[in-house]
Amino acid sequence: MLEKKFVHTFKSKNFDNRSKKSKIKYIILHYTETKNLNDAIKLLCSKKRKVSAHYVIDLDGKIYLLVEDTKRAWHAGLSSWKNEKYLNETSIGIEIVNEGEQKKKKYPKIQIKSVILLLKYLKNKFQIKKTNILAHSDIAPTRKIDPGVFFPWEELAKNSLSNFSKIKREKNDFDMLTPEELVFFFNCLKILGFHETEVNGSFSKNKLISNAFHRHYFPQLINKKPRRISVRLIKKIINLTKNI
Ligand SMILES: [Zn+2]
What we know:
2 domains; globular
């Protein structure tokens, strides 16, 4: 049983009660943006900061339980996905020790092995759909970029823990979209779950949301306008989502 391996050395008081009606439906993945576990624990247990997560996974793969699953940890902040807002209420938050995307540090294999074990355990325990295992950047695309471009979504998908999908490349993949196609792409972002997308907005309005999509599924296009491949990819992802 995985829970026997959880380390209980540190506890965070930064939580409150979930409302009685809410069911745990999502798992949100974060990185700590700290060099090590100690700095992460300090932050997640600080009374002043008022942030926490249910679990922290160290670089060596150890899993720390800071807040019980039944409680509402404060990890998501202002967030939305599909028609839901404030996802702390319906989610489990997992912080993964990592210095952050800008530092270009890859996630060690042993750490990802624990991420996968913990996700399998939680997915099974709460009957969570793989399409509801999301990045903090998915649910707060205008504020957050974690767990960043180095997070191995593809590896999770191999274990049925994410809806990441590869796509066959075509010649015109990097062609620009027409204005109509751009609107179609924004509409797809909204259907997928990016609640704040302004379907009739401009690329500059939707840039951060478009970046969040690409950061998760096709990082090559971060900070670039969506291309034809973005449309083919999001259509594929939405279909996968529907089939599950
Ligand atoms: Zn986060």
